[in-house]
Write a structure and sequence with these properties.
The longest helix has 13 residues, at 46-58. Helix content is 34%, strand content 21%. It is built from 9 helices and 7 strands. By secondary structure, it is of the alpha/beta class. It has helices spanning 19-29, 46-58, 76-84, 96-105, 145-154, 172-180, 192-201, 223-233, 237-240, and strands spanning 66-70, 88-93, 113-117, 130-136, 156-167, 204-212, 245-252. It has one domain (19-252): Rossmann fold, CATH 3.40.50.150.
Length: 253
């Protein structure tokens, strides 16, 4: 496997898919995507590490030879996978501009990754192509989130792991973004119950739902304090209901 992009068809079938809207949204956002007011300046921060570490555990990334990410974006998750696991990485997205940034970010790992254009509703891979697959913040951008999760499950081998992480609209900052940003509004359709239902419907066994609640990613000098605060907050049932992110995972039966 060689590094780089193999774009293919930028609009691989549009019926029952909102792929054109996805493309337009992310092409506009690409240049400033890694700098966000909601991330307190940049996405590559402590909270990003919390999220990708949880995903990696859920899909058993250390024991996987080939991992797929749907919604690869600018390659932040990919870089972590390539730096911290022995796996080969395949990432797909709808945006050429986002993948161009990812290609530059992942250049030191040439030979271990491939990036390409694909619609999450109909992935261009045969059944059982990967040991594990995941997405993060992708399902709520799809016209049919359940179908997107089913596609993740389809392309994973029997026994392979699948994980999907989504923002929890009950958390105040997520609520605001979802209410005032059209492209984020489908977050209101996603909750723990719907994620678990879609996972079961996709044929996943041992479905597990995790709630991630974490404190601000900055300033860096206070990271140890934030870590302790996170550990304490995780023990409070009421606060867990207001988690920032929801993570559903399971294995293909």
């Amino acid at each position: 496997m060689t590094g780089g992009r193999s774009p293919g068809d930028p609009v691989p079938g549009e019926r029952d898919s909102n792929v054109r809207e996805q493309i337009a949204h992310y092409e506009r956002m690409a240049a400033g995507f890694d700098r966000s007011v909601w991330s307190l300046g940049r996405r590559d921060n402590r909270n990003h590490l919390v999220k990708i570490s949880a995903i990696a555990r859920a899909i058993a990334a250390q024991g996987s030879r080939r991992i797929l990410e749907v919604g690869a974006g600018t390659g932040l998750h990919a870089r972590w996978i390539l730096e911290n696991t022995p796996a080969e990485y395949v990432g797909v997205d709808v945006s050429e501009a986002m993948l161009a940034i990812a290609t530059r970010r992942l250049a030191p790992h040439a030979g271990r990754f491939r990036l390409g254009i694909a619609d999450a509703h109909r992935l261009p891979f045969p059944d059982g192509s990967f040991d594990a697959a995941f997405c993060s913040g992708t399902l709520h951008h799809l016209a049919d989130p359940g179908r997107g999760l089913a596609e993740l499950a389809r392309v994973v081998r029997p026994g392979g792991r699948v994980a999907a992480m989504e923002p929890n609209w009950k958390f105040p900052s997520v609520l605001l973004v979802s209410a005032f940003t059209k492209a984020e509004r489908n977050a209101f359709k996603i909750n723990g119950a719907s994620l678990a239902r879609w996972a079961s419907g996709a044929g996943l066994a041992g479905v597990r739902l995790e709630r991630l609640l974490y404190t601000p990613p900055s300033p860096r000098a206070l990271e140890r304090i934030w870590d302790r605060a996170d550990a304490l907050a995780a023990r409070v049932p009421g606060l867990r209901r207001l988690s920032i992110m929801l993570l559903v995972s399971g294995r293909r039966a």
